[in-house]
Design brief:
Four copies of one chain form a homotetramer.
Chain A: E1 4-9, H1 14-23, E2 29-35, H2 44-47, E3 59-60, E4 72-75, H3 82-87, E5 94-97, H4 107-114, H5 121-126, E6 128-129, H6 132-141, E7 144-146, H7 150-164, E8 173-179, H8 194-197, E9 202-203, H9 211-221, E10 229-235, E11 242-249, H10 256-266, E12 273-275, E13 293-299, E14 305-312, H11 316-330
Parallel strand pairs in A: 1-2, 1-4, 2-3, 4-5, 5-7, 6-7, 8-10, 12-13
Antiparallel strand pairs in A: 8-11, 9-10, 11-14, 13-14
Chain lengths: 346, 346, 346, 346
Amino acid sequence: MAQITVAILGASGYTGAELLRFLIHHPQVKIAALTGDSQAGQPIGDVFPHLAHLGLSDLVRVEDLDTSGIDLVFCCLPHGTTQEIIAGLPDNVRVVDLSADFRLFDLDAYAIWYGHPHQAPKLQEQAVYGLTEHQRDAIQTARLVANPGCYPTASLLPLIPLYQAGLLSDATAIIDAKSGVTGAGRAAKRNLIFSEVSEGMQPYAVGSHRHMPEIEQGLAQIGGADIAVSFTPHLIPMRRGMIATTYVSMAGDATLNDIRATLEKAYAGEPFVHVLPDGETPSTHAVRGSNHCQIGIFAGRGEKDVILISAIDNLVKGASGQAVQNMNVMFGWPEQTALDGVAVFP
Amino acid sequence: MAQITVAILGASGYTGAELLRFLIHHPQVKIAALTGDSQAGQPIGDVFPHLAHLGLSDLVRVEDLDTSGIDLVFCCLPHGTTQEIIAGLPDNVRVVDLSADFRLFDLDAYAIWYGHPHQAPKLQEQAVYGLTEHQRDAIQTARLVANPGCYPTASLLPLIPLYQAGLLSDATAIIDAKSGVTGAGRAAKRNLIFSEVSEGMQPYAVGSHRHMPEIEQGLAQIGGADIAVSFTPHLIPMRRGMIATTYVSMAGDATLNDIRATLEKAYAGEPFVHVLPDGETPSTHAVRGSNHCQIGIFAGRGEKDVILISAIDNLVKGASGQAVQNMNVMFGWPEQTALDGVAVFP
Amino acid sequence: MAQITVAILGASGYTGAELLRFLIHHPQVKIAALTGDSQAGQPIGDVFPHLAHLGLSDLVRVEDLDTSGIDLVFCCLPHGTTQEIIAGLPDNVRVVDLSADFRLFDLDAYAIWYGHPHQAPKLQEQAVYGLTEHQRDAIQTARLVANPGCYPTASLLPLIPLYQAGLLSDATAIIDAKSGVTGAGRAAKRNLIFSEVSEGMQPYAVGSHRHMPEIEQGLAQIGGADIAVSFTPHLIPMRRGMIATTYVSMAGDATLNDIRATLEKAYAGEPFVHVLPDGETPSTHAVRGSNHCQIGIFAGRGEKDVILISAIDNLVKGASGQAVQNMNVMFGWPEQTALDGVAVFP
Amino acid sequence: MAQITVAILGASGYTGAELLRFLIHHPQVKIAALTGDSQAGQPIGDVFPHLAHLGLSDLVRVEDLDTSGIDLVFCCLPHGTTQEIIAGLPDNVRVVDLSADFRLFDLDAYAIWYGHPHQAPKLQEQAVYGLTEHQRDAIQTARLVANPGCYPTASLLPLIPLYQAGLLSDATAIIDAKSGVTGAGRAAKRNLIFSEVSEGMQPYAVGSHRHMPEIEQGLAQIGGADIAVSFTPHLIPMRRGMIATTYVSMAGDATLNDIRATLEKAYAGEPFVHVLPDGETPSTHAVRGSNHCQIGIFAGRGEKDVILISAIDNLVKGASGQAVQNMNVMFGWPEQTALDGVAVFP
């Protein structure tokens, strides 16, 4: 079986660990190199003891990466550091970037939301936004896939088919989102230590989270709708899992049946997106550790109101799982390859 | 110092334990009797080992309760069982009822939402809805106080002053609420066991939770506004704590400054309700174990949109703490008596 | 590729869910039937929403199980109900029993520890204790494998090679064990609900846990040593994971180097048992969701004292993972088949 | 009522927060000053939002502390920084030091275990080890009280009366201890972030924890026994709570009844130490947030073996609660003053 050779840049964080969890089972993938600047020279077992027995190569510095023979790079570097590094890769290396560096296509918007001018505007033009279920054709031929953020993935999956079908009004979409703590990464910060997080919750970045413009861009570019999004994320005391509870209104004569029919049709053949039967409620327990997404549809309080609830694992469908799914599309393999696990329950 | 004598009916649940935690420090209260039908005859230490050393009386059956000399009863019985029991108490015994049995003043609404006709309609007429900060006068002379639900308490505190001041439109108020698990009580249910709850979350009772009509009633009776409420609760993997994230629109020319000024004025002298400074975010960590409520005010996405965020401990301000606060009002004592603890952090 | 057909009895509990998580990836296994008496007639998605999309068969009653064509039964029924059911299976059906019903080979000991006479003494004679790494030959030809308990698995793996080598004294082995909550099963019990378990811990069954005689039997039958075991389990607020911290003394002239050399040699070729390098500490984080076991070796306080620390996932190597591993041995397949996943971290 | 004036040095950590939680209710204490070098100049609400409404003074640098009028200092500074600071305080200021800086009376042992020579050997001579129940007389007149570590407190309370009574052999005492995460403090460290701690556990500092010599010193100085201690701590995924499971052997003809009678007599009049009835098991749930300690006594596996299990809240009886208790002794107030709360359960 033909294999490609991949490297993971920034392998010492959670998305790196999660990529490795999937890729070691991928029959078409050979993991050639792992970078991690602050732990360069160390075996991967030093940063991830659960991977110590796999015989993976030691961490190297990004600048020491030998790109000869590399077919694909997964880039898990911190936001803001990725653009120049990817710009320096040979043209024949394809890239799935898990950072936010290539997700906003409007360079002015990027500068506003990320606080500095974009460092690789030419590359940005080539980038494809990797919401797999809705961008397959573009992903297949893309050199650079900007893997979506976790909140945008959870938010866009239920909304895009409905805006595409013209079933929703152009009123502001209210997205009340809740995320597990791994979404905040692996860096040591006081507000993330167990004693500050366990047994409590709080909203954060109210009205100012960088995933808000990314969601609006997705609704516009893919959903074809110019919608303002009110986005409020909350930090929940659990490692993994994300729920987006979305409040929207139907347009014209649209009914809840139309909503359901449209979503069911949109995801009928999809292996990872599941529209739940009437009355069933999504739960992060049902997707934990897996690339699945559950979508629930509920009547809202007003006649035209709809509540859409979607659940994903922020590290899988919201990051590394979707990245592997995108690689599978890029190379023409079945999308479920290495991703066919079910949730780890309990 | 003059003391009253109290009994706790249904003392073996979480609200009973929490009442005891406060009342043992109350200088004006003598705890005379505790009921718990399924564990009648046992010492309280059998159901709550942390209270074993206090020398409290053993649990008795409700029917064996000697009400002579009892001045006040806290009733913590399950919803639906309370009406007849309270109806059977002597007239001179005052009551703070922590169940939902006397919260809905419209008997038809009660029958619809609770599935059976009200058993004590006469008593219902006497009941006062015990949202302390907004009902002090009525509570002071009430014989029967219906202690508010946890979600209604968290939801109504930020909303009532704003509707009273006419600052909010009459559009549906969207309340996205999140609660710790103690809100579901102490009964053994599979969906509540640790392995089903930890490390995951899910919405429940979407559009059908019984606290929805209670919130609407509060907005109408106290806030003076006929508002439909879209209410979506979520179960969060933590013991205590509740956040209501509320999405509303301002009326007419009202501004965010008006919103802030009105809420700050409404709660300026209150010991337990804290309107946070601009930019600060409520957190359940800051109220855990205490009777405090934090309220945050944020600009929404649209020019007229406002996001109100309130945090309480569902077992304290959302149940037993407010019950003690109401007793303090009923007997003319300082409201902070026995409730002056700060949050247990971390 | 030749396939066998399996049934899972008692599929609606945690060990059933975990078996399914592995077996759906097993190339040689076809899952033919699932039983669950209290939920017979329901689709598996009703009891495990995360498995709803797999197209598995509905739950049936044990008595309605059609055993024709079944090659292997995994039995996940509650302790005490299994003996008669297995006795009723056709002789050609091989069995891996995850209950405790066939683990104690001394029928008198069984009666004492389990409170009733053994119901299938003839079958007991055929049973093989399925601690895979130490019983491969017997497992390979066994008709009935008694899958070890979680505590015995964690305890015996570090101890057996050392007793076999005569390196440990015959003094009492002290095993202080800690387990996640899934070990207590899925039944609704008050002491297991989230609010009673989260953020606290406690020992239980001190000196009286049924795994104590099972550990002693393992040390005797496999380790060849007649050792009394002091066993104290603790319930830890986490779903999965188990650590056994074992305090023993070396015999004669044995040194810590001997201990290490013996354990490293014993598990040198093992895919699932990892003796950690000097100074590294086992952690349940490194084995969560996987069939791996980490063993750490530490010098004790006295010159002859040794501390052995082993970590497993109680539901995997401590239950369903080892059950699949045993099936792999029984049918001559590579032991890692369907079990090659690494820990789910974070 | 006469009041003293206190300062808290290092008030921005968990022991500082916990001291404040108690002291604000203490009728004889006026909190005059709080230090916190890295956040000097900020209001306490910036580091502890739950204390924002109390009107406490802003944080100042230690070097800017005005000690005039201060009667007592609680010192919560990091280990190793305290000796010189306390040495610089006026002689009339009494001190309760919560760091480890004055706990080891043997200066050579201090240098070995803490890696540097003691900076204030003269002061060390004055220090009294503040295990309240066993050092009351010395504490009453002490100028400097070295507040015990959490593990030593949990370990020594059950052991000291038994060694004093000569009931235990001089064999090594094995203490297998488990602690919540707050014991590791509030500093941002990767190994303490929620995603690394939740849902898993691990031992740490096996055989090398600095509380081991402190326990041995306590057994020697107070218990009168020269005992080697084998001490293995484990990090448990919960904020607060500590259990010490201790394995010892009885001396001579001592029986379990002797053990029980001795412990019951030793703690008969104590408000905070509770010897549980036969068969009852200590739990951190029963002491969470309180100054209480539960002790359970169990027969071990061998005829002479005993298992002692003690549970405390590491931040309360293991730190700030005992510090307040010691202050109460130093000034002749009832020991329960400001400490009469029961556990926060659930």
